[in-house]
């Protein structure tokens, strides 16, 4: 590890909390009901980062394939549950299983390629690289899949007449749902593509900033950032694609009937009558 | 051609036996009597709680759904629009059902026949409600391989004069190709003028019966 970053004392860190006090004062004066949330989120951030700091110190000092794999699994599990939480309305078990399966397959394939082929880590489980890079890829994938799930559900609901209209004209469920699946994929990819467009001009990405602060040459930081961003792009795309191709099918039965209204979308009940 | 036996849709309708063999059949009934439900069952968009529907004496559950919908084509009550031009919307039915694409001349003729006086490149969103309904009728009329058309309120957005012309044209062309029409309508004059037989759903409806009791 590079050791030429500027370290600063706990007192100096404490001075940063002045920002929090200023915000608290503003919120208090403006009577915005966010004081409690601000305090809780600041406390959680402080506590979580301190714990993760100590955990990482231990993990980096004691590289172990099981610990590295375990941490990746924990991150992935949290990401999957986070997707469930971000999805409105509450989704059923079959859709949850597909989210989990898609994330497991998509993230695993891409991480293996990234770590073994691109970074060529030695040892392969080197936590200094494996854990932070995986964290970035899993985090962005989580956002992408959340968007994919939400857009698939909204698309099926908003375009239910079109889907059924296509079935009436003889289309297969795959063709009837095609525009919704494509739109959901597009929406899921947009944040990643937008981030790529602004990168380096509008903002310096976190990983690159971190490496530069840690004393790494900006050119090396750029190489890492480029590879990680492309890794993110690939992982989000593959994972969302796997999810969408598994998930659109649950809106149809084996008789190629559209089941949207029989599923768990808001304010929609099973269609018994139409007139 | 189509026969329903012991059909039950729980809480909606019960049909012991009904044979749909006339050329043009009109289905009437009060609101909530299950008129659209019966069309949806025939198009296999919904499955009845119990009972069997036969098409050419074959249980429709044993016919591939996609194949069935190529033979029994349904027009929903509100015209379904797909993003794009009139041409895109007319051709999409042929594409979905795997039939040969039509030429621009054929598309223009069918539009003119049904009184849609717009260019093929016009966006469908620029059509009025009535024009959308006629465009949707033109889209299914292009499907020459269909054997049965299920029309749900095909003239709800049309005035009387246009209804007469459009339905007359549609039914004449369908008749020339031996295609059967089963339509749901609330307009009794349409039934009287065009239908060979009229089925009143009220007698099959659980909803109406229960309400009357």
Summarize this structure as a short list of keywords or feature phrases.
heterodimer; A: 275 residues; mainly alpha; 2 domains; 10 helices; 73% helix; globular; disordered C terminus; B: 213 residues; alpha/beta; Rossmann fold; five-stranded parallel sheet; four-stranded antiparallel sheet; 9 strands
Summarize the structure.
The complex is a heterodimer of chains A (275) and B (213). Chain A is mainly alpha-helical.
Distance between the termini of chain A: 71 Å
Helix content of chain B: 25-40%
Please tell me the overall pLDDT of chain B: 92
CATH-level-4 superfamily name of chain B:
P-loop containing nucleotide triphosphate hydrolases
Biggest sheet features of chain A: none
Strand content of chain B: 15-25%
Q: What's the number of extended β-strand segments of chain A?
A: 0
Taken in chain order, the helices and strands of chain B follow as EEEHEEHEHHHEHEHEH
How big is the Rg of chain B? Answer: 17 Å
Number of extended strands of chain B: 9
Structural class per helix/strand content of chain B? Answer: alpha/beta
Described by the principal axes of the CA atoms, the overall outline of chain A is globular
What does this structure look like?
The complex is a heterodimer of chains A (275) and B (213). Chain A has 275 residues and is mostly helical. Chain A folds into two domains: 1-62, no CATH class; 65-262, no CATH class. Chain A is 73% helix and 0% strand. Chain A has ten helices and no strands. Chain A has helices spanning 10-29, 35-61, 65-86, 93-119, 127-158, 160-168, 173-176, 178-198, 206-213, 218-247. The longest helix of chain A has 32 residues, at 127-158. Chain A is globular. The N and C termini of chain A lie far apart (71 Å). Mean pLDDT of chain A is 89; it is low at 263-275. With 213 residues, chain B is of the alpha/beta class. Chain B has a single domain, classed as 3-Layer(aba) Sandwich (Rossmann fold), CATH 3.40.50.300. Helices cover 38% and strands 22% of the residues of chain B. Chain B is built from eight helices and nine strands. Chain B has helices spanning 35-42, 65-71, 86-96, 104-113, 129-141, 160-176, 188-194, 206-212; strands spanning 2-9, 13-20, 24-28, 50-55, 58-59, 72-75, 148-152, 180-184, 197-200. A five-stranded parallel beta sheet of chain B has the order 6-7-8-3-9, with helices on both faces. In chain B, strands 2-1-4-5 form a four-stranded antiparallel beta sheet, with no helix packed on it. In chain B, α3 (86-96) packs parallel to α5 and α5 runs parallel beside α6. The longest helix of chain B has 17 residues, at 160-176. Chain B is globular and about 50 Å long. Chain B starts with a strand and ends with a helix.
């Amino acid at each position: 590890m590079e050791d030429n970053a500027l370290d600063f004392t706990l007192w100096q860190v404490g001075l940063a909390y002045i920002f929090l006090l200023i915000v608290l004062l503003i919120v208090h004066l403006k009577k915005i009901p966010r004081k409690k949330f601000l305090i809780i989120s600041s406390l959680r951030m402080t506590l979580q980062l301190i714990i993760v700091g100590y955990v990482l110190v231990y993990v980096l000092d004691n590289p172990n394939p099981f610990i590295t794999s375990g941490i990746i699994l924990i991150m992935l599990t949290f990401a999957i549950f986070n997707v469930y939480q971000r999805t409105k309305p509450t989704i059923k078990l079959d859709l949850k299983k597909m989210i989990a399966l898609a994330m497991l397959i998509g993230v695993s394939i891409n991480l293996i390629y990234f770590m073994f082929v691109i970074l060529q880590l030695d040892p392969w489980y080197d936590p200094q690289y494996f854990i932070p890079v995986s964290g970035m890829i899993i985090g962005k994938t989580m956002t992408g899949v959340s968007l994919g799930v939400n857009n698939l559900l909204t698309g099926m609901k908003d375009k239910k007449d079109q889907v059924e209209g296509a079935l009436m004209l003889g289309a297969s469920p795959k063709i009837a749902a095609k525009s919704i699946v494509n739109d959901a994929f597009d929406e899921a990819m947009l944040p990643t593509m937008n981030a790529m467009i602004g990168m380096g001009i509008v903002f310096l990405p976190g990983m690159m900033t971190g490496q530069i602060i840690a004393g790494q040459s900006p050119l090396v930081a750029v190489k890492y950032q480029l590879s990680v961003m492309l890794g993110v792009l690939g992982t989000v795309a593959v994972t969302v694609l796997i999810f969408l191709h598994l998930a659109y099918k649950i809106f149809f039965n084996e008789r190629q009937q559209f089941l949207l209204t029989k599923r768990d979308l808001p304010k929609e009940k099973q269609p018994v009558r139409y007139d | 051609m189509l026969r329903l036996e012991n059909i039950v849709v729980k809480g909606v309708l019960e049909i012991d036996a009904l044979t749909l063999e006339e050329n043009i059949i009109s289905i009437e009934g009060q609101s909530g009597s299950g008129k659209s439900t019966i069309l949806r069952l025939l198009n296999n968009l919904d499955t009845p709680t119990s009972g069997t529907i036969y098409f050419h004496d074959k249980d429709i559950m044993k016919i591939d759904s996609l194949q069935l919908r190529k033979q029994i084509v349904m027009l929903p009550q509100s015209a379904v629009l797909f993003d794009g031009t009139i041409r895109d919307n007319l051709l999409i039915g042929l594409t979905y059902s795997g039939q040969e694409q039509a030429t621009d001349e054929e598309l223009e003729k069918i539009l003119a026949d049904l009184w849609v006086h717009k260019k093929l490149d016009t966006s469908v969103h620029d059509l009025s409600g009535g024009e959308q309904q006629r465009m949707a009728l033109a889209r299914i009329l292009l499907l020459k391989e269909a054997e049965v058309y299920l029309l749900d309120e095909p003239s709800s957005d049309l005035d009387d004069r246009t209804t007469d012309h459009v339905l007359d044209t549609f039914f004449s062309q369908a008749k020339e190709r031996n295609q059967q029409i089963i339509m749901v309508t609330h307009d009794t004059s349409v039934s009287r003028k065009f239908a060979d037989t009229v089925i009143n759903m009220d007698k099959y409806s659980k909803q109406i019966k229960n309400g009357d009791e």
